[in-house]
Recover the amino acids of this structure.
């Protein structure tokens, strides 16, 4: 099979004169949808704040990677997913989970390690899953989910389903070999995958300039003949929607992969265990909050559009806080998994004894 | 009954399963146009076409991970590692993703993938290409590990592995690829987790898997011929699940145990078996358990020395006599 390498192409959308609000996918939005995006962003933030409090209270253990500051990315991306689209991400996964419609209760309970959690308390904050919503995790190893997302796209194409897989990674993941191998496979076989680099500027405590060679993270896609683009204003949910939907269309219509780098920012440390005092200036955080906070920016835009008003904002905020509070109570009151549960969900066969075909021992304790 | 090679038996298993289930797809380096580095997949591309038989780049972490993702969506990828040794390049994908995905999702996601290829030494290719990672794979809950030693089992076990809903590491052996045996051309399965008594005996149980079993059978003939010793030879066939009952029944019958395998001795399958036997059949043992494994060093290149590094029928013969002394 010979394959002519396509000419690498950066997004044609130029910065000058570009108004994401007027892009077709946004121009046709109704008032309710616009408010829904706003509500989803607020819900993510209030959920994350409640998670932080639960962590500080000792209710949540392990690692907790908060999404505060990045809300426009998950909401924008999930809002343009079609019925046959799928999503997979790394360990900063709360925003995407809420974005696809998972409930706060099952997520908070998972953080608490409770049986009512989305993964029965077996995964934790980094390992949320809901395949019924095409949400495939929640993965703890940097870049390790990227081959899986590529495989989900492969599976869709193999089955003749016109869908795509949004495959998220952080800016630190771009230096993992598995990511480059996935790029090659996706480009080589025209897989319907959109690789999305959520570039919040820091791979843990190491800035992009100290970790990644070259000018652009997404631009590395050009080496594989993939289309690529930078979403400069990742804090703008409209721009995220516009550019991600274009990449999705390319995947749907032509089964072509692409790489998007969405510039964003996180307000908290890498995880809440990170004191966040060694690698960046607090002024940098304050400046971003003052000028680019995604909720503030969108709120102002919707106020200007006459879609939001103070009453709606207040109602949405109170409702999100209450929902988050309720989820913490739900998690608190939920039972832990039992000792017996430790060895369930290891092997399909053990959990489905009526269909068990193998014999012999699978456990050795 | 047709007599075919171990290699052909594997091919027949894949061919039948490709025909039976449209979700089965064969992927790996050189599996298609090149007919397989060891010709296991020869002819499958011509019969099943490029959608089902996929040549991958040399990119194990990428394509194994991709196969795992596809399996999560319901495909049944059968991934060939040209040498099983290359599993280490895809280690994170296999042991963090395939092994854990069901668990970490609370049982919401299955991963019906088979990763197969030759895992053996003795072919003069040096340490990087001679790994025998049965115990490393079997260490991970969520993973199943299968090691056929005969053409009959190669077909029956591979068909079971492909139909299995859990990830299966299927370890073959290049030296056995040319071995011939009777293999039905019908659709039969050998269930995972069933050991097989390859030779009945009453004086000592020689227990192991893979090519070491073929050596053990030769040693058993020598023991009979030279010392009138009746050795029982038990082929595990499957490491996880493990047929403890067949192993323990043999131990209770002969009261003496020699464990054999091609892998290194530390934390190996035989080490685990020795533990199980002393826990569950200590009172039946008339002598300490002995083992014949590879000499505990990276696989040496030098051909005459490599033969000595690995188990041999002579070493198994000598060790059996030591157990019986």
């Amino acid at each position: 099979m010979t394959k002519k390498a396509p000419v690498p192409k950066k997004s044609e959308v130029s910065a000058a004169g570009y108004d994401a609000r007027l892009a077709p996918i946004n121009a046709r939005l109704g008032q309710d949808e616009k408010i829904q995006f706003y509500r989803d962003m607020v819900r993510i933030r209030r959920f994350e704040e409640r998670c932080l409090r639960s962590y500080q209270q000792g209710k949540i253990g392990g690692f907790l990677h908060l999404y505060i500051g990045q809300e426009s990315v998950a909401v924008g991306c999930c809002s343009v997913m079609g019925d046959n689209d799928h999503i997979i991400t790394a360990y900063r996964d709360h925003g995407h989970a809420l974005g696809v419609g998972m409930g706060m209760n099952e997520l908070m309970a998972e953080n608490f390690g409770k049986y009512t959690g989305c993964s029965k308390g077996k995964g934790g904050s980094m390992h949320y899953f809901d395949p019924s919503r095409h949400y495939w995790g929640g993965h703890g190893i940097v870049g390790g989910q990227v081959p899986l997302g590529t495989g989900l796209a492969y599976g869709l194409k193999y089955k003749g389903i016109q869908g795509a897989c949004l495959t998220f990674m952080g800016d630190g993941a771009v230096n993992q070999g598995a990511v480059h191998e996935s790029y090659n496979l996706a480009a080589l076989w025209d897989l319907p995958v959109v690789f999305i680099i959520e570039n919040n500027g820091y791979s843990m405590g190491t800035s992009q300039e100290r970790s990644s060679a070259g000018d652009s993270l997404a631009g590395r896609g050009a080496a594989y003949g993939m289309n690529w683009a930078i979403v400069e204003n990742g804090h703008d949910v409209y721009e995220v929607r516009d550019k991600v939907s274009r990449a999705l269309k390319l995947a749907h219509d032509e089964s072509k992969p692409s790489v998007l780098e969405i510039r964003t920012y996180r307000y908290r440390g890498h995880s809440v265990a990170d004191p966040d005092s060694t690698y960046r200036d607090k002024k940098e955080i304050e400046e971003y909050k003052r000028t680019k906070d995604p909720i503030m920016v969108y709120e102002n835009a919707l106020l200007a559009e006459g879609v939001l008003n103070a009453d709606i904002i207040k109602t949405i905020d109170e409702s999100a806080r209450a929902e988050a509070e309720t989820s913490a109570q739900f998690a608190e009151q939920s039972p832990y998994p039992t000792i017996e549960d430790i060895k369930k969900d290891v092997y399909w066969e053990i959990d489905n004894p009526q269909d068990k075909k193998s014999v012999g021992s699978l456990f050795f304790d | 009954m047709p007599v075919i090679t171990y290699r052909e038996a594997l091919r027949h298993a894949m061919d039948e399963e490709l025909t039976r289930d449209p979700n089965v797809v064969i992927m790996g380096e050189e599996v298609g146009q090149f007919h397989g580095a060891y010709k296991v997949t020869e002819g499958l591309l011509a019969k099943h076409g490029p959608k089902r038989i996929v040549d991958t780049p040399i990119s194990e972490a990428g394509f194994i991970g991709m196969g795992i993702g596809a399996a999560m969506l319901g495909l049944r990828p059968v991934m060939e590692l040209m040498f099983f040794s290359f599993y280490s390049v895809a280690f994170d994908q296999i042991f963090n993703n395939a092994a854990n995905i069901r668990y970490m999702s609370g049982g919401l996601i299955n991963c019906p993938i088979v990763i197969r290829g030759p895992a053996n030494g003795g072919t003069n290719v040096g340490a990087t290409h001679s790994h025998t990672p049965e115990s490393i794979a079997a260490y991970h809950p969520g993973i199943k590990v299968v090691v056929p030693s005969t053409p009959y089992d190669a077909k029956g076990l591979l068909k079971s592995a492909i139909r299995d809903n859990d990830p299966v590491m299927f370890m073959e052996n290049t030296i056995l690829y040319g071995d011939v045996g009777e293999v039905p051309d019908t659709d039969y399965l050998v269930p995972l987790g069933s050991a097989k008594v390859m030779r009945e005996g009453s004086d000592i149980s020689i227990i192991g898997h893979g090519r070491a079993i073929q050596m053990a059978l030769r040693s058993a003939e020598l023991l009979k011929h030279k010392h009138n010793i009746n050795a029982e030879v038990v082929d595990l066939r499957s490491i996880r699940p493990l047929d403890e009952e067949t192993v323990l029944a043999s131990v209770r019958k002969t009261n003496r145990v020699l464990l054999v395998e091609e892998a290194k001795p530390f934390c190996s399958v035989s080490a685990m078996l020795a533990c199980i036997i002393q826990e569950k059949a200590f009172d039946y043992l008339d002598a300490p358990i002995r083992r014949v494994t590879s000499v505990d060093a990276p696989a040496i290149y030098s051909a005459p020395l490599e033969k000595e590094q690995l188990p041999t029928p002579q070493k198994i013969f000598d060790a059996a006599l030591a157990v019986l002394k």
